[in-house]
Amino acid sequence: xxxxxxxxxxxxxxxxxxxxxxxxxxPAKIARIGYLGFGTAAASAPRVEALRVGLRELGYIEGKxxxxxxxxxxxxxxxxxxxxxxxxxxVDIIFADSSTEVEPARQATKxxxxxxxxxxxxxxxxxxxxxxxxxxxxxxxxxxxPDLATKRxxxxxxxxxxxxxxxxLWSATAPSYLSVLQAVEPASQKLGVQLQMIPVAAAEDFEGxxxxxxxxxxxxxxxxxxxxMGRSHPALLAELALKHRLPTxxxxxxxxxxxxxxxxxxxHIDLTRRTATYIEKILKGAKPADLPVEQASxxxxxxxxxxxxxLGLEIPxxxxxxxxxxxx
Length: 328
Known about the structure:
This protein is of the alpha/beta class and 328 residues long. It is built from 14 helices and 13 strands.
């Protein structure tokens, strides 16, 4: 090789070395996920871990290629403020677990994708146009509580065959409460039970509400699920129900583990883990409008026999045989 050609080749290679080095030094883009949660971090720890597990299974590791920014609202009115914070910080996606969190997230942004894990009624609340074609910037996993609530009511009546009146504990903190109440009213008529509707707005209302049900001789408490009565204060609600000698049925397993009598619900931990697939698809360029909402397909009946014994109840053997989990 001639000296001039060698110098030219060497000079060209030297010019490319800094470019190659700079390319190697460029950090990979870290996706930013905003997590909007109602309640406390401690109460939602199992769901947070489920989301992390789902993301890790897809190759998303915190600190490496993904970062989760948490906002916890211990009061419902703070959700709108915190949703606005996440929207202004321009996160790539907002994770909003249920309808309680989705509504303020939708009001905060019409452009940032919003992914939910346990939405009770996304079509009924207008959060998506349809399950097959959500439209807009919202999608995820749904539990469709109006249909599920009627099944839960029938199971409760089966557990308490002589019941003639159920107290219904509901909270307007869950936007889906109205569609659930509308579903259980006609279902109760077919089952031959009266419903006593009692609203609560905060945990401080639980004592008065359950005391009223006891005075009115309710045979049990049907809890319309919301973050307020599920993830935020499950132990308190179970303790008060035992105090007033009231059987309970919930839409979350957590409420039964902490002392409630029964629950019939989807596996919310599994749904949260599976939500990671929506986050992955959106980060890779998919639009929420084109990602169909997937409904829960696996349901669990959980019965706490310790609580049944404390209340002096005998659960029908046929119902026990169908239970997915019995706490003894």
